[in-house]
Structures are given as structure tokens and as C-alpha cells.
Predict the 3D structure of the following.
Amino acid sequence: MSDSATSNKERIAAVLLENTFTSIPDIAKLLFPFRVIQWLPVWFYKNQFKSGRKACRITQPTLFLSGLSDQLIPPKMMTDLYTTCGAPVKRLARFPAGSHNETWACSDYYQTISYFLDEVLYLSRESGRPRPESPTTLVTHSN
């Protein structure tokens, strides 16, 4: 890793991911269930965005926001990303009514983000704040 990449990585306090896929080849196979797509080699895709393989290298606290009513990206992909994430502090928030583009409109969406950011501050020990109360949307806890 270059010095600039390392210094930029240290500037990131937290990562938030919402309704995203594990890779372009994975989502292409689901969106286009044609035999020819199923057999395309991975090198065929110009942009692969292999988030599923890269998630294990995340070290910053990470919040996964998953709309369970997403009809475009299967919520299982968010769960897979959460599972493979290498961050010591990671949270998965599930919103039953959350769709691909409107999870933000769900009850407790902003409270979940606020809680997570408060928790990151609490865990960093730079603040004298008490540990915040967890919202009902968070289904997983580590630490």
C-alpha cells in the first residue's frame, strides 16, 4: 500500500454501506437470469466491484444498512458483506420496509446511524460520553 493510501485510510473514522451488492458478476447473474450470463467468465466484466472479496480488509467501524424489501439487491448480499467484513466493530441494521432507494424513509433509520456514530465516538475513548442505547433496528453486536 502506498503512503498516501495509508494516510487516507487513517482519516476514515467509519464506513456506512447501504443496500449494496457483493460484486457486479454476482448481481448480473441475478438480474439477468439468462444462460449466457450464467456462463460468462469473470474477466468478461470490465468493472467487477468485488466488494465481497475486499470487505475482509476493512478495519474501520462499519455499519451495514439493509432494506429487507429491496427488490433490486438481495438483502442476503448485505448479510454476506457483513459476515466477511474484517472490522473489529461492525453492525448490521435491518429495516423490514426498506426498499432499494427508500430505506432512508424507514422508522429509526437516522437514529440507527446516529447511534452507530455515537458508539464509534464512545469506543474511541476520545469522548467522555456514556455508551448510547441501541435502536431496535440493530440485529447484531460485536465487542
